[in-house]
Amino acid sequence: MSASASGGPHAPKVLVFDSGLGGLTVLRELKRARPDLALIYAADDAAFPYGRLDDSALVERVGSVVGRLIADLQPNLVVIACNTASTLALPVLRARFPISFVGTVPAIKPACERSRSKRVSVLATPATVRRDYTQDLIREFAGDCRVTLVGSERLASLAEAALHGEPVADAAIATEIAPCFVDDGARTDTVVLACTHYPLLIERLKHLAPWPVEWIDPAPAIARRASSLLGAPGPAANLAVRALFTSGQAPSPALAHALAAFGVTAFDAALPAV
Ligand code: DGL
Fold it and tell me: Residues of the chain with pLDDT > 70: what percent?
């Protein structure tokens, strides 16, 4: 029997938010860890990609869209499944809205702990790469690792295209990841996926890497953090996940098919006036 996300009156309601489809990689882990939740996925695709917005425009955009979503949906918890937004806007969101937020920030600490060659690369949007937040993480946790920051202009858009069923050339992906692979006598052995879109392409990243590395996807850790804030799980409800897109565009058949693989089978109209 299928049920809609609003069908479980006692299921804690969790909003998973991203600029586009990348947050699905976090939603997937949360759904796996907590089948008792009513999950709603919201993509601010009208403003995608966030990686190209300037800082003040991004803070304003995230504040107003997330504010509308909180008012309309009344979630128990919000996951900002976007590094580009979290590394800048989380303090503002926490100050403005009296509910729990879980953010997504570059997993520099675990990467540097695990690296044996002491060469770690952080693959992110250009905006995440230049954030003070990211620089602070490196200062605090890099230890004796050399960290290479790689700001990719196109990889999030390529991941979107792939999920929309459009052809994405190997060469385009290979060009975006090439600067992650440093060989200065020791070779990069760990790459942090510091944009939630990138794990959507993980099999192709592995295939196109010039040598094998460990790819760090923070999604399981984010799901654990959200789960611990929500408290003990209730009985599994396995509710359908609802999604909404600020563009108001209904997903194409190819995208609807891809979304179904993440458990997203219901679509809401866009928020008015976003
Ligand atoms: N998924 C977002 C992140 O984790 C970024 C994509 C974008 O540029 O909008 O950073």
Answer: 95
Any atom of ligand 1 within 6 Å of the Cβ of 151? no
CA dist 25 and 8 (Å) reads 23
Q: Give the residue numbers marked as catalytic.
A: 82, 195
Secondary structure percentages of the chain, helix, strand, coil, to 5:
45, 20, 35
Q: pTM of the prediction? A: 0.94
Q: Which of 125, 131, 149, 158 to mutate to test the pocket of ligand 1 (most atoms within 8 A of CB)?
A: 125
CATH fold of 108-217:
Rossmann fold (3.40.50)
Fold of 13-104+220-268: Rossmann fold (3.40.50)
For residue range 214-223, what is the model confidence (pLDDT) as tens digits?
Answer: 999 999 999 9
For residue 193, pLDDT over 90 is answered with yes
The domain limits of the chain are 13-104+220-268, 108-217
Distance 196 CA to ligand 1 centre (A): 6
